[in-house]
Amino acid sequence: MRANYQVNSGVRFQMLSDDQLQEIFESVLHVLEYTGLEVHHEESVSILKEAGAWVDGKRVRLPSHMVRRALELAPRSFTVYARDGNPEHDIHIGPGRSHFGPGPTCPNFIDVESLERRPYVKSDVPLVAKVVDALPNIDFCESLGTVNDVHHDLGATYEFAGMFPNTSKPIVAWSYDKYDSEEIHKIAVAEAGGQEAFELRPNYIHYCEPLSPLVSTQDALDKLIFAANHRVPLIFTPCPIAGGTAPITAAGIIIQAAAESWMGLTIAQTLQPGLPFFMGGVLSVMDMSNMILAYGAPELSLFMAGITELAHYVGLPLWQTGGCTDSKALDEQAAIEGSLSVYFSALTGGDLCHDVGYTESAMTGSVFQLAMMDEAIGYSRRITRGIEVNEETLAVDVIHNVGPNGHYLREQHTRDHYRSEFFYPNLCDRRNYEEWEMMGKQTMSDRVVSRVQDILATHEPSPIKPETEKAIEDVLAAAENRVKE
Amino acid sequence: MSETLEKLSTAILEGDSAATPGLVQDALDDGVTPKTVLDEGMVVGMNEVGDRFRRGDMFVPEVLMSAEAMQTGLEILRPELASSGVKLIGKVVLGTVQGDLHDIGKNLVGMMCEGAGFEVIDLGFNQKPDAFIDAVKEHQPDIVGMSALLTTTMRAMGHTIKSLEEAGLRDQLKIMVGGAPVDQDFADRIGADGYGSNAVAGSDLAKRLVGDG
């Protein structure tokens, strides 16, 4: 028995001190109380007023006790379930657990056959979901694109209808407004077996995005209210840009983003106490020569680490960002930017890390970037898992038994642990030169392309229920009718 | 009968050293010839091990377990093969060359060659050219395999080949080389007949060198 013995499981990473976190936290409360936000949503304004907010037209200020209460109500740990009951695809949110997945709504896509950039279309959705389903280190699904070849109000509905049958990993669903939120929910509920069953085992997460600086929009709050009323786990994530729509300093952008996200939190927890809620958002810099939101900037990783620490300080899970790049190609820049942000995100233990597979500053989605990052995530996870120290791993007896000039390859100890102790790459090449030459001198990007094409040719996701297939048909037919009127 | 051989090849594939000797005995008791037990049972399993290793579906510790299972089976089978006059596919003399104390890789090549059906004579490590010459004269092998881990000792492989030539023994055998710093180019330069980059590649090479692969 060990006594008075401290164990560190995994690699420890902390940037901000408790004093700094407290100062940032108090500053967020201050912004919400003294500056307030514009809330472009009458129902939300009256909900907030009723609950104690100070309202002046659209301007809503939250006394800090309201925000503190909302933070108390939101859970730190909960589970989002695989639609097919496969426990390996469940996502357990809680301290020390990080998960990864793609992002939504890029206008373009890298075609999986021609490898050329072109507009994202409906038939890309199932391919992305299939690749997500097959990759071992990708945990949740988004589509990497906005469907361009359907009615302009129905992109999100078609997107969910295309993803849901092709992966049983939980989906993070965005939508345009409350109408398609409802359509998406009908599909998920059909598979779950009704609203009550869904509430016990939610199988998707709803994503809403307020506006920076300091505006809660009509659509974002329509969607938030829909999710809260139906107990759909919720992400409320602004996308402030340092130097453009947010202060240029890291501490400043973190404070503003938290204020924007916690306005949503307060409304959601007032309506539905205990609703699983992810704090956002995507925090990065405006590139001052190209005027873009940089997805490969080191500041993105730094800002995201800071806001993750704030989220965990107040007991909320965080919607992290990583695995993305400003590069236009599957090249060295994409590998550097993507891998470093994935690794940094893993170190923070940020709960759901999205935008894996974004290229060209979120203008183009790429399953190839996604597949390359799957390897970087596996690599990062091996490092963050850390070093286990116990009788078995100390191996003092094994060292004694093998002795000088022996070897460990035949030891039972080696056999017991070689699978779990090492990371086995799927894409990184460790062959000798001759073998590599014989295999056609493939580069990383060659191997990424063939892995993706192999997955698309062979991977079979578990099927949805027949009643869900029917529900999808009905939802799509009704949606087409909705936009005709 | 074929069911026992199938179980035997599966036991080899799964590295089941406990089950293998019994299955070899069962097959012999059923009247299967020792050569059939070897070729259609054990070697089938070992070939699958090699295929899976090359594909990256099996790792070295598992390959070793299979090679060990193969050895437990061969202990039963070897006297039967000898008494029925069956020759193994070839004989290999292995050693780490002069000045080099590393022999894990060479040991693995030996186990894999036994698994492939060779008789293996292992000279150990730090072996002078004369030790190789004596062993060739004594055992009359088909193949001499040499290994070195260090860039400083790899040239001793060239010296050993030269000594074998001077002793007039070079023409009667094939020479294969391996070890971390060795590559095909080096093997060509010192006049070896082949190079293997790992233990499985080494036993594949041995099979090719005796015209059985």
DSSP, total strands of chain B: 5
**CATH fold-level label of the domain at 78-385 in chain A:** TIM Barrel
Assign the CATH architecture of the largest domain in chain B: 3-Layer(aba) Sandwich
Structural class based on helices, strands and sheet pairing of chain B: alpha/beta
**Can you summarize the main beta sheet of chain A?**
4 strands, mixed
* Rg of chain A (C-alpha, Å): 23 Å
- CATH homologous superfamily name of the domain at 78-385 in chain A? Trimethylamine methyltransferase-like
- Oligomeric state, counting identical vs distinct chains: heterodimer
Arithmetic mean of pLDDT of chain A: 96
- Largest sheet strand order of chain A: 2-3-1-11
How does the helix and strand content of chain A classify structurally? alpha/beta
CATH structural fold name of the largest domain in chain B: Rossmann fold
Fraction in helix of chain B = 55-70%
Please work out how many helical segments of chain B DSSP would assign: 9
> What's the level 1 CATH class of the domain at 78-385 in chain A?
Alpha Beta
Overall mean pLDDT score of chain B? 91
What amount of the residues of chain A lies in strands?
Answer: 5-15%
Instruction: Name the helix and strand elements of chain B from N-terminus to C-terminus, one letter apiece.
Output: HHHHEHEHEHEHEH
Q: Specify the CATH architecture of the domain at 78-385 in chain A.
A: Alpha-Beta Barrel
Compact summary:
The complex is a heterodimer of chains A (485) and B (213). Chain A is α/β, with parallel strands linked by helices and 485 residues long. Chain A has helices at residues 18-35, 42-50, 64-73, 124-134, 155-163, 178-192, 195-200, 218-229, 250-271, 298-314, 332-348, 367-385, 391-394, 396-402, 412-421, 433-438, 444-458, 466-484; strands at residues 37-39, 54-56, 59-61, 78-80, 91-93, 99-100, 108-110, 117-119, 171-174, 204-208, 215-216, 234-236, 241-242, 277-279, 284-285, 319-321, 352-354, 358-359, 364-365.
